[in-house]
Amino acid sequence: MDDLGFYLGLPLLGAVAIVVSTIVLYLAITALLSHAGQRLHASPSSLDLAVVTVLGAIVGRSILGQVPTLSGGLLALATLLAVEGVAGRVRRSERMVARRRHRAVAVMVAGQVQRHELTRLGLDETGLWSELRAAGVRSPQEVAVAVVEPDGRFTVLRRGEDVHPAALTGVKQSGELLERLARD
Q1: What keywords is this UniProt entry annotated with (predicted)?
Q2: Which CATH number is correct for 105-183, 2.60.120.10, 1.20.1250.20, 3.30.240.20, 3.40.50.300?
Q3: What is the b/e burial string over 40-77, where b = at least 16 CB atoms within 10 angstroms of the residue's CB?
Q4: CA-to-CA distance for 179 and 106, rounded, in angstroms?
Q5: How many Cβ atoms are within 10 Å of 86's Cβ, its own excluded?
Q6: At what angle do helices 70-92 and 46-64 cross, to 10 degrees?
Q7: Is 144 exposed, middle or buried (CB count within 10 Å of its CB: 0-12, 13-18, 19+)?
Q8: pLDDT tens digit string along 9-49?
């Protein structure tokens, strides 16, 4: 066993395999969850939660290899934290902030459901109405705008009061939404 393998409690090649598999699987899971993230946060079903749990188990097992060891787990954890730290810096960079600026999406405008946006997000009207009821909405006419935020939460702005342009900051097509609300 080489010196590094002696100190880590696993051979150098095994350590390299853990680091590489941690990075690759982190990137794969991040891509998968960013694609389905809003839907998973907005209305997680039991099946969604089960799938995420199974994905976590598969990823954890794949990272640690055939014989999981404490040192391998610690190395995977350190690699994961390092990759997340780097990814956090990238996400906060100006270029990424500009790309993410319009990730909130209006799914109901002036009392009308935007079915194409719901479909694009992988949501349905059942989930929308569940969130509207939780916000105390009794009728579509009460809603000026219902927005699915980037983290999957819903925000409901009610009719009857002017919607300040700043309230729609970061919402996809906010200028068009304000024009539509002004006409309504």
Answers
A1: Cell membrane, Membrane, Transmembrane, Transmembrane helix
A2: 3.30.240.20
A3: bbbbeeeeeeeebeeeeeebeeebbeeeeeebbeebbe
A4: 14
A5: 11
A6: 120
A7: buried
A8: 778 888 899 999 999 999 988 888 777 655 555 556 677 77
